[in-house]
Design brief:
Blueprint (H helix, E strand, L loop, with lengths): L5 H66 L13 H20 L1
Length: about 100
């Protein structure tokens, strides 16, 4: 617990008992426990809000993507006949090589 051994915790408890007395020590521990619980609740609430905002943002993004896909003409949706960019690049290279070789001849 916090990197402290049993002997160190006992020493801290004894010092607190001497300075605070046996009547104030339980009140102090109770207040400390309430503070830690409240901190954990606030932390959990913040984490829930962040996760909720992230999921809402993801839903909005998915809606936008589906809207774009739905607005696309049917002829472009899932058309495997369209050449890829690599094929277009290869064609352009072949054309430029043909033009270069024809200029040399």
């Amino acid at each position: 617990m916090f990197g402290l051994g049993m002997g160190e915790l006992l020493l801290i408890f004894l010092i607190a008992l001497i300075f605070l007395g046996p009547k104030k020590l339980p009140e102090l521990a109770q207040g400390l426990g309430k503070g830690i619980r409240e901190f954990n609740r606030a932390r959990q609430g913040l984490m829930d809000e962040v996760q909720q905002a992230a999921s809402e943002e993801k839903k909005d993004e998915n809606k936008k993507e589906s809207a774009v896909a739905n607005s696309m003409p049917q002829s472009l949706k899932g058309n495997e006949n369209l050449p890829s960019t690599a094929q277009i690049d290869d064609r352009e290279k072949a054309k430029s090589q043909e033009q270069s070789s024809s200029r040399i001849n």
